[in-house]
Amino acid sequence: MSTTRRQAAVLLCAAVLATAAHASPMFTESSFSQLRFLEGKWQGVGPDGKAFFDEYVLAEPRLLRSIRHADAGFNKATDSSTVALQDGEVISTWGPFTWRATSISASKACFEPINAPSAFCWEQVAPDAVSVTQRWTGADGKEASFVIRLTRLKP
Fold first, then answer.
1. How much of the chain, in percent, has pLDDT values that exceed 90?
2. What keywords are annotated for this sequence in UniProt (predicted)?
3. Of 84, 86, 101, 133, which sits most exposed with the smallest number of CB within 10 A?
C-alpha cells in the first residue's frame, strides 16, 4: 500500500472513531420507559421563591408530557413541554429550546443543550422526591448550577 493510501486510510479511521465518540447514545422504548419515575403530580419552588406545580404524563410509549399548572388544583395548564423518543434519540422540547438526552436510567435522566442556555438532570432522590439540577456557564465564564427539589403530591 502506498504512503498516500495508508495516510488516507488512517485519516478515514480517525474520522470514523471521532464521529463514533461524539455520537449520541441510542435509546429504545425500553430505556425511554425508565422515565416513569417522573410520572405524577409534583410541587416545587422556583429560583424566584414561588411554588409551581408540574404534572408528568407518559402520553404514549415514546412521549412524556410535562404540564405546568397555575395551582395545586391542576385544573389550569399554564405551560408545557415534551420529551420524545425518535430514531434512537430522546429530545426534550420546551418552546424554542431543545435538549438531547445523554443518559437515562431508572432514577436519573440527563440532557445537554441542542438549542438551549443550560443542561439539566432529573434525579429521583427518594420515592416521592426528585431533584432537578440545571447547569450553565455564566457571563463570567464560570460554571454555575441550581437545584430544585420536586415533591410528589398524593392523588
1. 82
2. Signal
3. 86
* CATH number corresponding to 25-152: 2.40.128.20
Whether the predicted pLDDT of 78 surpasses 60:
yes
Confidence of residue 61 (pLDDT cuts 50, 70, 90): very high
DSSP string, 107-147: SEEEEEEEESS-EEEEEEEETTEEEEEEEEE-TTS-EEEEE
87-138 per-position pLDDT tens digit: 999 999 999 999 999 999 999 999 999 999 999 999 999 999 999 999 999 9
Strands (E), the chain: 40-45, 51-60, 63-69, 77-86, 89-94, 97-104, 108-115, 119-126, 129-137, 143-152
Contacts of 8 (CB under 8 A, 6+ apart): none
Strand partners, 121: 110, 133
- Rounded Cα–Cα distance for residues 111 and 121 (Å): 6
Closest CA to 93 of 70, 122, 114, 77: 114
